[in-house]
Design brief:
By secondary structure, this protein is an alpha/beta fold. About 60% of the residues lie in helices and about 10% in strands. The protein folds into 2 domains: about 20-340, ABC transporter transmembrane region fold (Up-down Bundle), CATH 1.20.1560; about 355-595, P-loop containing nucleotide triphosphate hydrolases (Rossmann fold, 3-Layer(aba) Sandwich). Bound molecules: adenosine-5'-triphosphate. The site of adenosine-5'-triphosphate has 13 residues, from α15.
């Protein structure tokens, strides 16, 4: 068995739009640099059209100075060719200089917008979307879009104009030969539209598979300890190889489609040029056409080869970019549709003059839970008085963590409401709610910043004194022993620390802001008995002035609380002091004394 997630199509996605409609959605990001893009495109159009003057100059040289044996005229013609070549190259260079910087800005702006949106998305969104899918959208997809804006977007226009101008020149030179050259246009248009549809599907598949692969790599790196500990590296390797194999197959299909299109796009015009050459030579032989005109005609046709041939390649990148745009906006749109505030039940606005924390008829079911699964919480009523510490006890899987996540609005209740100091939390701004409520989870997450920065996340404006006090409460003074003291940078996710050290830093982060409400999800589970006793002694002082809800598995943690609430089958089954419940409630007594609880869980 491997620990990889399902290929992701987990990431929900709507049906595909046309490539143009998808790409038009980039406009708000491209708008600020539109001037530069237009100037860049115009320079490239002028450069490309200057290239088309070269065959006309050749015609002048052949029919004029060469036919008239005029060496100075040939030199003049050569000089004109040189000037045209230099001007063409110079203008293409100018275009690059004009657009490179602004387009890097567009990419950075889009990435920043995506990152900001990801930060604001509800936890339920992150539960649903594999992280690799989000990573690949923020990196490879956005890079692809920058490449599209700087190259294919301009060159689809430039090559289109060049082909039209070239065709006019060809028809003007000799319309009969011109028609021969234009004959492949209709089959090529049909081919391109069939290709567009097929390539779009395959490109989408490949980009999603890159996301899946990124997820596997990310999970393997983050979970390297588990993988090594269980000797699962071969299984992981197999999973990775299977996914890369699938990606390889899709990439081969893409290459096959592109190869077929390219071959036809190259062969059809070559055949037409061959036919025109034969006809042209016959006409020159019959004296109906000058040699210079034939040279100019064929040079123009050859000059149009690259613009025509590149169309397949440009269409391919355009298609992939449309897919990348869809993938980018799938996240941005989901965010708009399911942003926390939008998902929140409408605030009743009722002000109850009652301090403390109250849960009223709270129901909750995870959005991605199976349809036949019962709700995790089924009408929870609980009141925590101001300054009181309420322990929340229940069997494993009874919904304690879920309940605590509702208070800081990491999830929204399906029904019912949560009231802090008489105000429905849905009526409080996010900032106000974060000021009022601090949380510490059983699985402490630290960031690759210094120990002090991690703690100060709980109160960015707190000074040195409060930082030291919070570290003392959490018995996290070990940070002073680190190589650079509390300024020591912690490794990724704080993995350079022990589980207990991480928990203590997370606890310090929760208490530093001196919050009115403290929600602790079994915050001492990784501590040894001695350290736990020290933290509890210090925490008692903090809890004396704070209204707290503390998930507890062990009697020692329960004893921190004034009262205990027993969560069972989605409801609060009993509330009382630890000793009252021990004597009056068999389920509670069994949970606290060790044997498996009634839900079959391990009460630890
Ligand atoms: N993101 C999720 N999506 C769907 N179901 C979930 C999700 N998270 C938790 N659950 C389910 O919700 C139920 C309650 O989980 P929760 O983590 O709240 O239990 P708990 O009482 O805190 O357990 P423990 O004591 O082991 O920490 C479990 O059945 C779990 O499988």
């Amino acid at each position: 068995m491997t620990v990889t997630r399902e290929p992701s199509s987990a990431a929900p996605r709507p049906g595909r739009h046309s490539a143009v409609r998808s790409l038009l959605r980039l406009w708000p990001y491209v708008r600020p640099v539109r001037g530069r893009l237009v100037v860049g495109a115009l320079s490239a159009v002028v450069a490309s059209c200057l290239g088309l003057l070269i065959p006309l100059t050749l015609k002048w040289i052949v029919d004029g100075p060469v036919a008239g044996h005029d060496p100075s005229g040939v030199w003049l013609g050569g000089l004109a060719l040189l000037v045209l070549g230099v001007a063409e190259a110079g203008l293409f260079g100018v275009r690059r200089m004009i657009v490179a910087g602004p387009l890097a800005r567009v990419e950075a702006d889009m990435r920043a917008a995506l990152y900001a949106r990801l930060q604001r998305l509800p936890v339920s969104f992150h539960d649903r979307w594999p992280s690799g899918q989000l990573l690949s959208r923020a990196t490879t997809d956005l890079m692809l879009l920058r490449i599209f804006l700087s190259f294919p977007l301009t060159f689809l226009l430039v090559n289109g104009v060049t082909i039209v101008v070239g065709c006019v020149i060809l028809l003007q030179q000799r319309w009969t030969l011109g028609l021969v050259l234009l004959a492949p246009v209709v089959p090529m248009v049909v081919l391109c539209s069939v290709f567009e549809e097929r390539y779009a599907r395959t490109a989408r598949k490949a980009q999603d598979q890159i996301g899946d692969l990124t997820t596997v790599v990310e999970e393997s790196v983050l979970g390297i300890r588990v993988i090594k500990g269980f000797g699962r590296h071969r299984g992981q390797e197999r999973a990775f190889r299977a996914l890369s194999w699938r990606l390889w197959e899709t990439e081969l299909r893409k290459a096959g489609l592109l190869g077929t299109l390219w071959a036809l796009i190259v062969i059809l015009p070559e055949l037409a040029i061959g036919a025109a050459l034969v006809l042209g030579v016959v006409e020159v032989g019959d004296g109906e056409l000058s040699a210079g005109t034939l040279v100019a005609f064929l040079s123009t046709a050859l000059a149009l080869r690259w613009p025509v041939e590149s169309i397949g390649f440009l269409l391919a990148i355009t298609n992939e970019s449309a897919t990348a745009t869809d993938r980018f906006f799938e996240v941005m749109d989901t965010a708009e549709a399911s942003a926390e505030d939008a998902a929140a039940p409408v605030s009743t606005g009722v002000r109850v003059k009652e301090p403390g924390l109250r849960l009223e008829g709270v129901w909750f079911r995870y959005p991605d839970a199976p349809a036949d699964a019962p709700p995790v919480l089924c009408g929870v009523d609980l009141r925590v008085r101001p300054g009181e510490t309420m322990a929340l006890v229940g069997a494993t899987g009874s919904g304690k963590t879920t309940l605590t996540a509702l208070v800081p609005r990491l999830h929204e209740p399906t029904a019912g409401r949560i009231v802090l100091d008489g105000r429905d939390i849905t009526g409080l701004s996010r900032e106000r709610l974060r000021e009022l409520v601090a949380v510490a989870f059983e699985e402490p997450t630290l960031f690759s910043a210094s120990a002090a920065e991690n703690v100060l996340m709980g109160a960015p404006d707190a000074g040195e004194e409060r930082l030291l006090a919070a570290l003392a409460v959490a018995q996290a003074e070990f940070v002073h022993e680190l190589p650079q003291g509390r300024r020591t940078r912690l490794g990724e996710q704080g993995l350079s620390l022990s589980g207990g050290q991480r928990q203590r830093l997370a606890l310090a982060r929760a208490v530093i802001g001196d919050p009115r409400f403290l929600v602790l999800d079994d915050p001492l589970s990784a501590l040894d008995v001695h350290t736990e006793a020290l933290v509890e002694a210090a925490l008692r002082e903090v809890l004396a002035t704070t209204t707290a809800l503390v998930v507890a598995h062990r009697p020692s943690t329960v004893l921190l609380a004034d009262r205990v609430a027993l969560l069972s089958r989605g409801r609060i089954a009993a509330v009382g002091t630890h000793h009252e419940l021990l004597h009056t409630n068999r389920e509670y007594a069994s949970l606290m004394s060790g044997p498996a609880g009634p839900e079959g869980g391990d009460p630890r």
